[in-house]
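Cross-posted from the bioinformatics board.
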Amino acid sequence: MMPPAARGSDHWPVAMTYLLIKTLHLLFVIAWMATVFYLPRILVNLAESAGEPAVQARLQLMGRRLYMFGHNMFGLAFIFGVLLWQGWRVFPQALPNVVGSLHWIDAKLTLVAVLLAYFTVCGRLLKRAAAGGALPSSRALRWFNELPVLLLLGVIFLVLAKPF
Ligand code: HEM
């Protein structure tokens, strides 16, 4: 991490640029993770409200909007994440090389890819339900809903501890 004394100008210390980008990264990560946690809950409610068309229509609308919002938030989290990771190549004066020769980022991005695949599967299940296709049981969906918690635990540990 850059020494806090490093000053870019009298009004905007260099480290502040990095911290502002990390703040935006975390904002969009949190917004995306909210949709990753909530979309499977909508699937559970869809599975448990078969035969209630008004409820199903409301849940479908909520699910579609949440899925679209989630994609936008991931896109922004990705842009600021790549800036944190590789920005030093373009702005060497303003951004530090936080990863260097370490490999925690490889493991982190693998878990992020699994989280993104999970989110996409939820979107596919939502579309299948809208087309009248069968959903897994609500019990199976509740277990499925726990997976992102474990993945997020791994991502946060890797980015804070940087163990390798
Ligand atoms: C999509 C591609 C992503 C890239 C390239 C990326 C890259 C990075 C980098 C380089 C940092 C700065 C590490 C540091 O300053 O020590 C960071 C911070 C962080 N990232 Fe990501 N990230 C991505 C997505 C995510 C996702 C999806 C999550 C959570 C699910 C996440 C959670 C975090 C957290 C919690 C931090 C803050 C760590 C700290 O405070 O030091 N990132 N990310």
